[in-house]
Amino acid sequence: MNPFIPNETYSKISDISLDYLINDIDIKGLIFDFDGTLMRGSKLSNETFEFINKAKMRGLKISVLSNNIHLDESVLQKLNITTTKKFALKPLKKPFLTMAKRMKLSPIRIAVIGNNRLSDIFGANRAKMYSIYIQNLNGFMFKLKLRDKLKNLGIKHTDD
Ligand SMILES: [Mg+2]
Questions:
Q1: CA–centroid distance, residue 113 to ligand 1 (Å)
Q2: Cα-to-centroid distance, 152 and ligand 1 (Å)
Q3: What fold is seen in the domain 8-152?
Q4: Domain boundaries in the chain?
Q5: Ligand 1 centroid vs 34 CA: distance in angstroms?
Q6: 129/30 Cα distance (integer angstroms)
Q7: Is residue 47 within 8 Å of 13, Cβ to Cβ?
Q8: In this structure, which of 45, 54, 82, 121 has its CB flanked by the most CB atoms within 10 Å?
Q9: How far is ligand 1, taken at its centre, from the CA of residue 134, in Å?
Q10: What is the pTM of this model?
């Protein structure tokens, strides 16, 4: 299996099926990447906020693993996520396995959710975790394509 290929791919976190993760493949915890995954730009969306709360209510343990040296603490507080690691050195296996220990879960019971194929997906797959890729260029690329199409038709598209 190609270790850069994720188990699932979505354009946003709220599209992930908690039912499938919990009922079908027995996932007990989620490890989130921070920049570009939980946060889009400098914002935490309401949809993501609600998804995390739903996941918690269904009993999933939640943590954050980031390569950034800075994490917005106010966002972590708002989400009430206490198992966090910044400057994690993903895609090394160690930070994933250390986080699994802190979550008191076997790696195979954890899904990693991230927007980077190297640090998040490759790292998760090598640590034997379930990998979910958030492909956040989708919306942007779609907008560009749409704008070009409209331009070709002589319509100026201003909704950027
Ligand atoms: Mg990221």
A1: 9
A2: 34
A3: Rossmann fold (3.40.50)
A4: 8-152
A5: 6
A6: 10
A7: yes
A8: 121
A9: 9
A10: 0.86
